[in-house]
């Protein structure tokens, strides 16, 4: 079977599909991952085919429209306005990406697409191929918990309020791009518009939806349809031949486990402020630390006079190698990082910035592996030091994190997802 997987966004949005793709390849399937050229090395190392899609996610994150979306936090209307402005800015550039996405699927027997690549459903419809949604964060409406952009885990209006908040979040996540998608459907694919949007259309069709999430972390609600499955995580494969920097290995071996601070791909807008807060937090607690600068979320401090003696910095490091060696992780709460932290069995402090980060911050708190979220917009060194100090000195968070990791170690989300994909293809469920 020839499978094309479509995923856009940051490395956290793409890396789980390396694990899923490898699982399919082990079963003898030919797998193509269609995504940005930035990830060519990781895709080649995983042994998958790569269909390069035009664009640079790092540049997009530095754009004014992306910053507006990030600053919206849990404000649905502000989020929707930011999405619309981004769609307007990207309208001309989107056509080559959409065309390349379609080309990547022309020979596929099965199309698998991420939440960041919802045009995959339209491509499957145009080509008449079976399609499966493969998401890393929950968007299916339910009465049990509130939607991604809700300010709290459960609505004060109860189950109906929870369910309504999912539709509001869906409108915010997809509404800004619906006009662009409908125009492309008409002009390039010869298809009618989607009045309710791509997620609503997929629900109407009963299109299978796999969540690369642990059922231990997010037990599936009773009111989700049978077409939805929570399979377990899809861990990205280790990079062959990767070796840790010797100076970092020596640093880790020379003292107590450090705290890791990493905010991934949040961009450079407030890097100076966040770096100052992190260094002041380290000073207050007197802890050792590793700083991950990511795509500019933290400054490269060496350029400004050097780091304190108990602190080291790197652009990025494999989570599977680093996290088991740290005392705690301070991160933004993206789906990929949250999954890695849960699997590593380390407690966390979550500093959500935008989108689904607030949802995963609340989940971490509910699981007992992190204190209350510390939203980026309101963060102070005093508050961060207080939260991190509680994690480092109290055994409760550490014990809960270890118990969670022990449970996750018995799951094989890739195998469950691969079996579901094979059933979907064999059943011939079309777009």
Q: Which stretches of 5+ consecutive residues score pLDDT under 50?
A: none
In the CATH hierarchy, the third-tier topology of the largest domain is known as Rossmann fold
State the helix count.
16
N-to-C span: 17 Å
What CATH architecture label of the largest domain applies?
3-Layer(aba) Sandwich
Helix-strand blueprint:
Blueprint (H helix, E strand, L loop, with lengths): L1 E5 L4 H16 L3 E7 L3 H6 L3 E5 L3 H5 L2 H8 L4 H30 L4 E4 L5 H9 L3 E5 L22 H32 L8 H8 L3 E3 L16 E3 L15 H8 L5 E4 L8 H15 L3 E4 L18 E4 L4 H4 L5 E4 L3 H10 L3 E3 L6 H10 L14 H13 L1 H14 L4 H15 L4
Parallel strand pairs: 1-2, 1-4, 2-3, 4-5, 5-6, 6-7, 8-9, 8-11, 9-10, 11-12
Helix pairs in contact: 1-16, 4-5, 5-6, 5-7, 10-14
How would you describe this protein?
- With 431 residues, the chain is α/β, with parallel strands linked by helices.
- The protein has two domains: 2-233 and 411-427, 3-Layer(aba) Sandwich (Rossmann fold), CATH 3.40.50; 246-408, Glycogen Phosphorylase B (Rossmann fold, 3-Layer(aba) Sandwich), CATH 3.40.50.2000.
- Helix content is 47%, strand content 12%.
- The strands form two sheets. It has a seven-stranded parallel beta sheet, with helices on both faces. A five-stranded parallel beta sheet has the order 10-9-8-11-12, sandwiched between helices.
- Strand 8 (259-262), helix 10 (271-285) and strand 9 form a beta-alpha-beta unit.
- The longest helix is centred in the middle third of the chain and has 32 residues, at 158-189.
- The radius of gyration is 21 Å and the shape is globular.
- The mean pLDDT is 88.
């Amino acid at each position: 079977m020839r499978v094309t997987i479509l995923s856009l966004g940051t490395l956290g949005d793409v890396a789980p599909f390396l694990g899923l793709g490898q699982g399919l390849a082990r079963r003898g399937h030919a797998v193509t991952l269609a995504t940005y050229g930035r990830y060519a090395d990781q895709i080649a190392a995983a042994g998958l085919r790569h269909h390069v899609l035009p664009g640079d996610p790092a540049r997009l994150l530095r754009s004014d429209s992306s910053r507006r979306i990030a600053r919206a936090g849990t404000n649905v209307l502000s989020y929707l306005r930011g999405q619309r402005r981004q769609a307007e800015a990207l309208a001309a550039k989107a056509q080559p990406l959409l065309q390349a996405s379609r080309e990547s699927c022309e020979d596929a027997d099965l199309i698998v697409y991420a939440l960041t690549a919802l045009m995959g459903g339209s491509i499957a419809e145009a080509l008449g191929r079976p399609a499966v949604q493969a998401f890393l964060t929950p968007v299916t409406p339910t009465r049990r918990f509130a939607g991604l952009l809700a300010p709290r885990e459960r609505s004060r209006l109860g189950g109906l309020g929870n369910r309504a908040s999912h539709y509001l979040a869906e409108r915010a996540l997809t509404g800004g791009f619906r006009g662009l998608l409908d125009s492309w459907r008409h002009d390039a694919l010869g298809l009618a518009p989607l009045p309710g949007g791509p997620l609503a259309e997929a629900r109407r069709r009963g299109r299978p939806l796999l969540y690369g999430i642990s059922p231990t972390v997010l037990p599936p609600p009773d009111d989700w349809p049978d077409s939805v499955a929570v399979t377990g995580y899809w861990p990205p494969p280790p990079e062959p031949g990767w070796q840790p920097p010797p100076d970092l290995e020596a640093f880790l071996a020379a003292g107590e486990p450090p705290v890791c601070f990493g905010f991934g791909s949040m961009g450079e807008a407030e890097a100076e402020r966040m770096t100052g807060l992190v260094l002041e937090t380290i000073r207050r607690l007197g802890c050792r630390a590793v700083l991950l600068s990511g795509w500019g979320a933290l400054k490269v401090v060496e350029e400004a006079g050097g780091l304190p003696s108990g602190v080291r910095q790197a652009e990025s490091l494999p989570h599977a190698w680093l996290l088991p060696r740290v005392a705690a992780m301070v991160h933004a709460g993206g789906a990929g990082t949250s999954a890695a932290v849960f699997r590593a069995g380390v407690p966390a402090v979550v500093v959500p910035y935008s989108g689904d980060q607030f949802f995963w911050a609340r989940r971490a708190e509910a699981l007992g592996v992190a204190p209350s979220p510390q939203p980026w917009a309101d963060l102070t060194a005093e508050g961060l030091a207080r939260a991190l100090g509680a994690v480092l000195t109290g055994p409760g968070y550490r014990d809960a994190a270890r118990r969670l990791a022990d449970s996750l170690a018995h799951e094989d989300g890739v195998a469950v997802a691969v079996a579901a994909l094979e059933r979907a293809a064999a059943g011939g469920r079309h777009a």
